[in-house]
Amino acid sequence: MSFKKFGIWGNTDKKSFWKILPEILSWASKNNLKPFLTKRIFEKGSFDTEIINSKSDFNKMDFMLVLGGDGTFLSLVRAIQNRTVPILGIHLGDLGFLAKVTLKDLFYRLDQVAKNNYFVEDRSLIKSKIIKDDQTIEHVSLNDFVFANGESFRMLNTSVRVDDHFVGNYKADGLIISTPTGSTAYSLSAGGPIVTPNVDSMIITPTSAHSLTSRPLVVPGHSKITVSFSGSADSIRFVADGQVHEILNPKSQVEVVKSGYTVSLIDFKDTDYFKTLRVKMGWGKRGD
């Protein structure tokens, strides 16, 4: 696919974003590509470019360039929703798992995109349906959904079912339901497994479980996970991708399934998921 238009989404709080942006616009001009800036970027600077005025404008883009960290990447995924525009993530700090390209390689990778030397990888998302009082609230996440007690220092009691089969009661500080993409995020820090992105699955991970027998569980991607609560405090925190928050009550129920759409990531043949693990986490290295 030959790209002609692309949008720029970025973390405007980072000085490195404003330093690199003019160079990206200059690169676009040299390569006869038309850049579009978000309103937030446009209003904070002075640029002779077109603007992404609404979410429907994403449909006009051949790809989106996101500059920031993984959090910035996740915010763009939430904004794009089910639009099939591919995303190229540029990390403005250390190497990330979503925004995998560093500033050092930025223009080398952009040149590859301009020359059609790339491929698109589809990543699964998960969808939650929160049944709370007389309301039904839905959220979609690329990484995870997190449940935690709304009161500090209180244990969360969750009852988990998979496809209407009772799994067990988790007594823990919290519970994480993640995608394979999110398996290297909060779930991993809570002791969950690393699951490669092409494995069709979901991961259920308790955080600081109050029983040695409570262990992470990997279930098929087509499963329906149902979470309910008992013996918890008056409020339960629900967080989607670390960015969207809801307050639940003990009578609430949450169903989690794989989303009906995916997100498309631009990637390159010479990138390596396991190399990212080794570089980012020192995976496979012995401690000094």
Your description of this structure?
The protein is an alpha/beta fold. The chain folds into 2 domains: 5-118 and 268-281, Rossmann fold (3-Layer(aba) Sandwich); 125-260, Sandwich (Tumour Suppressor Smad4). It contains 6 helices and 18 strands. The chain has a 6-stranded parallel beta sheet with strand order 3-2-1-4-5-6, sandwiched between helices. The protein has a 6-stranded antiparallel beta sheet with strand order 8-7-18-15-10-11, covered by helices on one side. A 6-stranded antiparallel beta sheet has the order 14-13-12-9-16-17, with no helix packed on it. The model has no long low-confidence stretch (mean pLDDT 92).
Feature tags:
single chain; 288 residues; Rossmann fold; Tumour Suppressor Smad4; six-stranded antiparallel beta sheet
Q: Judging by the overall fold, what is the CATH architecture of the largest domain?
A: Sandwich
Number of domains: 2
Q: Sheet bearing the most strands, described?
A: 6 strands, parallel
Estimate the helix proportion, in percent.
10-25%
Strand portion: 35-45%
List the helices and strands and how they pair.
Elements: E1 5-10, H1 15-30, E2 34-38, H2 39-44, E3 50-52, E4 63-68, H3 70-80, E5 87-91, E6 101-102, H4 106-114, E7 119-132, E8 135-141, E9 144-149, E10 156-162, E11 165-172, E12 174-178, H5 186-189, E13 201-207, E14 217-220, E15 225-229, E16 236-240, E17 244-248, E18 253-267, H6 273-281
Parallel strand pairs: 1-2, 1-4, 2-3, 4-5, 5-6
Antiparallel strand pairs: 7-8, 7-18, 9-12, 9-16, 10-11, 10-15, 12-13, 13-14, 15-18, 16-17
